[in-house]
Amino acid sequence: MSNSPLSAHPFELAGMGTGPFGFVGMVSIPSATLAEQNPSAYQNALGSLPHDLEGGLGTCRCCGQAITHVCIIENAQGDRYGVGTDCVLKTDDPCLANKAKIAVAKLQRKQRFARAAAKREAHRQKWLSTACDEAGETNAQRIERERTEQEAAQKARKDAVWAKFGFLLPYLGGPEGGFCASIAAGIREGQAPRSRALDICGEIYAKAHGRRGSNAYVEALNEFNDKTWEAA
Predict the structure, then answer these.
(1) What is the pLDDT of residues 54-69, one digit of tens each?
(2) Regarding beta strands 69-74 and 80-84, do their DSSP bridges make them parallel or antiparallel, or are they unpaired?
(3) pLDDT at site 132
(4) How far apart are CA 42 and CA 29, in angstroms?
(5) Together in a domain, 158 and 219
(6) pLDDT tens digit string along 37-48?
(7) Cβ distance 171 to 205 under 8 Å?
(8) What DSSP character marks residue 94?
(9) φ and ψ at 218, to 5 degrees?
(10) Which pTM was predicted?
């Protein structure tokens, strides 16, 4: 590109080196609102901004105006600058302007989705806090009550399984290995052994008290059946 004032690139005239210039991408400066609402997210957003710019992070390197959305422009020497979208579009440089238009369109679409999601969440929270059933219970109260009831039911089921099958746990560490360990884990989580798993438990319990066919073996198997017959 010629260095004459008539044909010089606007970025060359702004002291941003010489062209050709390339569009690297676009980043956004986090808002003060985010800093108030979520300081951690604000700090993370600041940390993700590029730190290798020669200038233009928050202030357009071309015109000096404050900017929120920063187009990262690289000159022929590999130096990078931050430029506002308006200045990029005004260059009429298709290698820059077209890519800037795409980046802006993607940003606007992301913002629309974010606004729509926030609106849906606001409606949901309003519905949860204001909608009541015939008994005067709000949806939020109903959800909390049902969650508490579900947790209580799960605990009751776990306690019932533990009361019936807990005596088996000391016997489920034998050579059967992983299968027995999974049965033991199920008992601890409130899952009663069924069918073939229950038969295996009976066999293990009986063998722990005597060799197969002995009186002790038979007595232990009968004891096991008496304790677990409701689960059969």
Answers:
(1) 887 888 998 888 888 8
(2) antiparallel
(3) 60
(4) 10
(5) yes
(6) 788 888 888 888
(7) yes
(8) H
(9) -65, -45
(10) 0.45
